[in-house]
């Protein structure tokens, strides 16, 4: 806890007291809200015991009493005050102290009657030639209040306020975010995230919260038991077998027909292509788009961040290492890796287990 300055008894009815100010918990905090008093007004409080709960932009905190004495509230519950403003005073005697006006505002802030202007707000007001009268009715003027005022006052041309649909966009977006619809949507997404955490112990993007992976695969005509993340980009004729897992941020390009067998896992960020526009781009679109079918066999594992080129054929029971660029044909039980990828080993199946073995290891240990 920070140390609080003591004041002399010249400005009060009773003896010395200690003010306790609202601390700055974050570098961007201009204000803080009083959530709950834990010690009643005028009640005795012990040193280092919490007496109030405050709320910043990112956290809820408790303030501890700097000394033993009698606590007096300086602001009501629910009020929002500038950082550095005294929230309470701890006096030696049960009589309420008489605080000077200057102690009821934040260091670096400006008092205009009953109004407090934070340092950042004051600088913005000076920069744009604004007076406190523009913010009449606000007990505390924050930088955010000045920014909202400036946005509403900034003139816009017709071109600047048109969308592609021809609708005006000079909307109070803060009001939109404060709408009942926004609050209900936030509640729904929070509930869906909790459900995802409870069921699968994971956090996913909003689209994947709203769309069931297995239902999406069924809608696309993929095989039984297959799931595909909603943020997978799927183009053209894509045929996927049973019990496959297609991870997030993947690309399944079927413009030249992509076929994937059963029991295939495709890692996050992997791209499977059946077309490219290399020659088309290099010739200024005089050459046609290149297309060639790509085929992935059954029981394959394609690791994350793999790129598979058009025309590639990978047979059954193959493993492709992460980050590989794969082009060409590979027989069953291949261990594929590299950029460009090569067959660097084999997949060995023994009973219900699989093992990867490099070709160099096999040459030295043929048994």
Short summary of the structure?
The chain is an alpha/beta fold and 367 residues long. 19% of the residues lie in helices and 31% in strands.
Explain what this protein looks like in three dimensions.
The chain is an alpha/beta fold and 367 residues long. It has four domains: 9-107, OB fold (Dihydrolipoamide Acetyltransferase, E2P) (Beta Barrel); 111-170, no CATH class; 179-210; 212-364, UDP N-Acetylglucosamine Acyltransferase, domain 1 (3 Solenoid), CATH 2.160.10. It contains eight helices and 29 strands. The protein has helices at 119-128, 143-153, 173-177, 180-200, 206-210, 213-219, 278-282, 359-364, and strands at residues 17-21, 31-37, 44-45, 50-55, 60-64, 69-73, 80-82, 86-91, 110-112, 115-117, 140-141, 227-228, 233-240, 245-246, 251-260, 265-266, 271-272, 275-276, 290-291, 294-296, 301-302, 307-308, 313-314, 319-320, 325-326, 329-330, 334-338, 341-350, 353-358. The strands form six sheets. The chain has an eight-stranded mixed sheet. Strands 13, 15, 17, 20, 22, 23, 25 and 26 form an eight-stranded parallel sheet that branches. Helix 1 packs parallel to helix 2. Mean pLDDT is 83; it is low at 1-15, 101-107 and 157-161.
